[in-house]
Design a protein that fits this description.
There is one protein chain. Helix 1 packs antiparallel against helix 2, helix 3 runs parallel beside helix 5 and helix 4 packs antiparallel against helix 5. The relative contact order is 0.14. This protein is mainly alpha-helical.
Length: 140
Amino acid sequence: MSVQAILLPLFVEVILTFMLGSALVPMRGRDFKSGVARYDNVALREPNWSKGTLQFAYSFSNQFELPVLFYVLTILEYVTHLAGIVFVVLAWVFVIFRVLHAYIHVTSNNIKLRGPLYGVAAIVLIVMWLIYIVEVLTLR
């Protein structure tokens, strides 16, 4: 597989993370300006932001949970030259479900929709890791 095919899903996940983080800047600024949040009541990560700001903040924070394992696996797959079509397809499935999860998280925040999207992404990532572990352990 080409380096572009292997890394493009990772790039999309990184872009998603930066987009969510960037959206937080004006939202938090508005919360300070309106008085919803004060520096002294958010300095230690207290959740004293508006609901909309919290939704984005939690979605942004969520990008440093499961996706970290995705980043590590992608780098390992690339470095060990084991990334094939199965990896790339599963990587795209993972990223698509992460994007959908983030979208629901910052819009309706409907847990009945968000939960299954998270679950599918988690299962796909587990399968990806299991495949990689088997590939590495059976190398000759």
